[in-house]
Design brief:
Blueprint lengths: L1 E6 L6 E2 L6 E4 L5 E2 L6 E2 L2 E8 L12 E7 L2 E7 L9 H7 L13 E4 L5 E3 L3 E8 L27 E8 L4 E4 L11 E9 L3 E10 L4 E12 L9 H8 L1 E4 L7 E7 L2 E7 L9 E8 L2 E9 L5 E12 L2 E7 L7 E6 L13 E3 L35 H4 L1 E5 L7 E8 L2 E7 L9 E9 L2 E8 L2 E3 L5 E10 L2 E8 L18 E7 L20
Parallel strand pairs: 10-16
Antiparallel strand pairs: 1-6, 2-5, 3-4, 3-7, 7-8, 9-11, 11-14, 12-15, 13-14, 15-16, 17-18, 18-19, 19-20, 20-21, 21-22, 22-23, 23-24, 25-31, 26-27, 26-34, 27-28, 28-29, 29-30, 30-32, 32-33, 33-34
């Protein structure tokens, strides 16, 4: 099915991020991103994208595109009817191309590659098109002067650029080529962006009757060179790690920064694993530009927030637009938790730079006491699947030291978080880089603003086996040597264990009536 739109505005260009305010329901029990635009030009835009349905699709079943803007919701509904079958002739008639030429073929369109762009620099776009010379040019003298009194578009090929998706405004210079007949047309344009982020740009070559479109994705990142007392890394340290609101609504963000790339997690109450969402963005002089992807149980996108974060006198100011139903613009002031990291049997380093938390033989939650040696409960699963690991895993005892490991499906990947006390981001970290190899699960814990040992920022590599409702994990880090080899009795497996998985949906509603909750952590 082929969709376009009519924007009733004559001037305003509207942006609606993918989410409940811009979603397509094509059956299959889910809705969301099916390739629709997020940037909407004024007036009518035809034949923009296709939704492919199965061969045995029920002719009475509808594909529904829902758009909400300025508080008003509209829907476009499509279903299959033989009389509505789309042909080149129908497209020509709808595009005002005159009498269709039965031999005409769409132009051929080629786009050049676009290297990575650093905001606020412009990029160069190149496009070229060739055509079969049809339709033929108009006669010099109109065949019907009364009918053809207005100038008509000359016959030939023309290339035009539009913004299809993106978090900011895009400016093309130029956005359209001259109309060229009988020879190839080439076009070079400068394109600039009002904000960092990921953009989808579309070029269309039109011969006056038929057209060909091609999309190109451009990643615009803020400059990774940040002047902060002459030290870019110091500025990144201002941003990285966990942040939370101190009152009102619960919002927690965790940013992992490596060069100009940012990833991480967002949640309200992490004990309610349904609130866990995932951050992707870029870091530069103006701070962090990022999206937050909220997912359905099957990993499909429910909706996305677009936001920016800037450091301000020890706080982090996050502004953006929510893609949730009835969502809108927001501004949140986030703090670092004044309690800092919980103590462990070794020193704990932290950001902002401060003396490390001293090691304790038995810390204030009881962690560190000697335990009986671990004996493997039985054989591990020989072939792991994503279903074996998705969910909530619990470990490290009870009370404040208890840790939640949450693993969710996000698109085609697994991502997650580990957290202790829900209101102290110093007990949290993002989980990423998941791999399953036979009976082994591997992933990274992204330490950012706290770490067990002499560094607060590093990746902890986890290797795990799963079985008997248990995940048995060992860890390694690149900056520390592995422990010395020593004999182990049969059945002994080093590391720590988590119990699970608990279904994500089973944790829904685990939250407090006030934020921040009293009597937590230390």
């Amino acid at each position: 099915m082929v969709f376009g739109y009519l924007n009733r505005n004559y001037e305003e260009e509207v942006d609606i991020p993918i989410g409940p305010a811009n979603s397509i329901d094509a059956g299959e029990g889910k809705s969301g991103d099916r390739g629709q635009p997020t940037h909407f030009y004024p007036r009518r835009q035809r034949f923009l994208f296709r939704v492919v349905v199965p061969r045995d699709w029920d002719k009475q079943q509808k594909v529904i595109w829902t758009l909400t803007s300025h508080g008003k919701t509209n829907q476009a509904k499509g279903w299959l009817q033989p009389v509505w079958e789309l042909s080149p002739d129908v497209m020509v008639e709808n595009m005002g191309g005159g009498v269709p030429d039965p031999n005409n073929q769409p132009p051929s369109l080629t786009l050049g590659d676009v290297p990575p762009v650093t905001f606020p620099n412009a990029a160069t776009l190149t496009a070229s098109a060739t055509d079969d010379g049809l339709p033929k040019p108009y006669r010099r003298t109109p065949s019907n002067p009364a009918r053809d009194s207005q100038p008509r578009r000359p016959r030939g090929v023309q290339i035009k650029w539009i913004q299809y998706r993106g978090p900011g405004k895009v400016t093309f210079d130029p956005d359209v080529s001259a109309v060229v007949y009988g020879e190839p047309v080439a076009m070079t344009s400068k394109v600039s962006f009002s904000a960092p982020g990921t953009y989808v740009l579309r070029a269309t070559a039109n011969d006056g009757q038929l057209f060909t479109s091609r999309d190109i994705t451009v990643n615009v990142s803020p400059s990774a060179t940040v002047q902060s007392n002459g030290n870019a890394a110091a500025n990144a340290d201002d941003y990285r790690g966990g942040w939370r609101t101190d009152k009102g609504e619960a919002h927690t963000y965790e940013f992992s920064i490596r060069g100009g790339n940012v990833r991480g997690i967002y949640c309200t109450y992490c004990a309610d694993a349904t609130t866990l969402a995932f951050i992707d963005g870029t870091f530069g002089p103006g701070g962090i530009a990022f999206t937050v992807t909220h997912v359905n149980a099957d990993g499909s996108t429910a909706y996305r927030d677009t936001a920016a974060a800037r450091f301000d006198h020890g706080n982090l100011i996050v502004t953006g637009t929510s893609g949730a139903p009835a969502g809108g613009k927001f501004e949140r002031t986030l703090i670092k938790d004044p309690r800092g990291p919980d103590p462990l049997p070794i020193i704990v380093s932290r950001l902002p730079k401060a003396p490390p938390v001293p090691a304790v033989a038995i810390n204030q939650q009881g962690v560190g006491a000697s335990l009986p040696r671990y004996i493997q409960p039985g054989p591990w699963k020989s072939t792991l699947t994503e279903t074996d690991v998705i969910g909530v895993w619990l470990g490290f005892g009870v009370g404040a030291p208890k840790q939640y490991f949450i693993i969710r499906k996000v698109g085609a990947k697994l991502r997650g978080m580990v957290c202790g006390t829900c209101d102290n981001p110093y007990t949290m970290a993002a989980l990423d880089d998941f791999e399953i190899h036979g009976d082994l699960l591997k992933f990274n814990i992204l330490h950012e603003d706290w770490g067990d040992g002499e560094l607060p920022t590093f990746y902890k590599h986890v290797t795990a086996h799963v079985g008997w409702n248990e995940m048995r994990c060992t860890t390694a880090v690149d900056h520390q040597p592995p422990p010395p080899a020593r004999p182990r009795p049969p059945g002994f497996v080093p590391g720590f264990s988590l119990t699970g998985p608990i279904a994500i949906a089973a944790t829904a509603g685990t939250r407090w009536p006030e934020w921040r909750p009293p009597n937590t952590s230390v």
